[in-house]
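U., I forgot to send this yesterday:
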Amino acid sequence: MLALFRSMFKARDKKGFYRKSLIWFLLTASIPGFITGGCIYWFAVDHIEEDLNVLHQSQMEQRVKNIDDQLMYLELDLSHWAFSPRFGWDLQELDFVYYFRDTWDISQSLVVLQGSHPLIQDVELFVDGSQTVLFKTGYYKLEDPAVIASYRELLKDTRSIYWTDRKTESSDDEEIIDSNPQDSIKLVHKIPGDSPSPFGILVLTLNRDKVVNLLKTMTPYNEGITFLMREGGEIIVSDESKNNDIQGLRDEVMKQGQLSGTFLWEWENSTYSVSYGQLRRIDKEWTYISAAPMTAITSPVVVLSNIILLVSTIGLLLALVLSWLASIRMYSPVERLIHESNDLQARLDNQQPNLRMGFLLQLLQGHLRHYTEADLRERMKRYGWKVDQHQFHVLQIQLIGFSSLSSRFPPGSESLVTFAASNIIEELTKEHYEQFGVVNFHDLSVGVLIMSMKNEALANQLNFLGEDITKVINRILNIKVTITISRLTDSVKRISETFMEVERASGFRQFVNQNQLLNMDDGAVHAASNEERYPFEIEMDIIQSLRSGKKTEAEGLIGRFLEEVLSHHGTEVHVQQNMLQLLGSIQHMILQSGVSTFRLYQGANMFDLLSQIREPGKMLSWMKERVIAPFLLERDARASMQLKQIVERTTEYIQANYMKNISLESCADLVGTNSYTLSKLFKHITGVNFIDYVTELRLDKAKELLSKSELKINDIAEEVGYQQRYFNRIFKKQVGITPTQYREML
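Result:
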């Protein structure tokens, strides 16, 4: 037994000695790494930064020269084309339609010019001669005065060749101008190139993306800022850098007071190596500016030194970890329990707002009526509310006029607008009350439950809250608001009934697109007048217009109907009831005309859709687009089908009786119409007139008999309904040869 204990203690001593030896070895191995990494970082980086900066400046000079060569090539190439005889004085009086081959040659020349350099995005030739035309790899005759004026402005410039970013007007009828002229650079040369009084211009438009990519060659590793600017500091073209970065760098360069140079620029905790200089462009001086971050230039060395430091640090940390491994293992179960407890508490805290909103939604909609008052108050306490000796108010906020915001919010974004409004309401309510709950219904309406101490007067405060909500939502969302404030209740069970009263009261708002505040305690909400006046005469006019297919008249009458209803009632409830009655009358007329409303409206519940609309303008447009337009389209389609059947019956009769004496009048009597109407319908449906159709059919039958039978020409003429002399004459007129020659050719 004694020997066993001695062996255990000996093994323990060996294990402790091994651990200490390992720790000292790791510490000894890590110290040289710290020293080496520090020396490289503190002493070598600055020297390498200077060397790399010199190398960067040398590369910059080469790349700037390349950019200058590219632009100079464009200038020389355009001058060459401007002096070409193809763009000489002949273009001033040339009829481009008559001499279409010359026009085609000009278009091909522009295509060649456009493909001569990758920077060229577009080539245009404007000729202001006997005809005002524009070539853009194709011929276009200009008629828009605004477009002509914009090109004449370019022609009026006193310089024969120059760079500009002046934008030309676009035409409404022809897509001949670049649809995205933002930051476009144009090179303009007047033609003829040697003329003191030019009559046209050649315009090269550079591809902005390719120019930006060319400028990016001045910054290493695709990092930094680069752009071109004019003498006055106006930016010509720049990369995708932030506007603040470009403006700050431009101001710093202009402070230097020199035409070219290099300097270091501190900006937003970064150091940039800035190079700038001049690019001489014909009669102007452009300034190129390139700023490359020093971190991008010296990053390889910094990364290497950081790796050495990191490896040394990891070695040291590993030694410390090994020494505390046993204690960590002992503490790990307790740490796991604490972590799980904190995680569960964090999840509960994150889900509590959703749980409170779900509870409020069920409470307002009456799904918790089977609970007792005590149970409901206890649940509210668990959600963090203090409800003892408290009273309650319910507010309903409706967003009005959403359809008028189509330019700001796309259709279908009602939920997004309601979400923004609910956040605004929550922030404003927090400033007035300590305890409240906000429910987002996602249908342009929001509910608010406010809790306050009993015997606390809230009438004025609620009105002030409603006014604040109205002002802020009007200013931020640019939408009108209707707020309905409930009566006071001190029972949690009656909150659902109170909310139902608020919903009913909100239906008595004035049906106009304006802010409204309805307080049920003030008596502002009352039942509408029992006297109702329904515009029966306008309804009859609407029905008659729809039966006659007069779309414009029917739409105008529906507008009058809505105006009449608004002038007599004005409340939302009455307007919806009258419009629903009108919809029922229209559907009754549609059924009487033999059209299925289920098929016409694809099974949609039109009454339900109409009852959900809360804006007069949207209600009017809905009646036009969803009710009137489909019916009139169906009516026109049925009429077109009947007309097509008349023409089909006529063609069937002609094909069966082409050998007889057929006339337009006899066919019109057959189908039950007059000859004038049948002639117009026949031409519209078949594309040929009646006589040509009969003649073509008879000649086709004659050709068939000439090729497949041995009948005489006289017999064939009788077979197809012609006398021989007239048959020979009309056959030669239509075919070009006589019937005998046609048979011999076969």
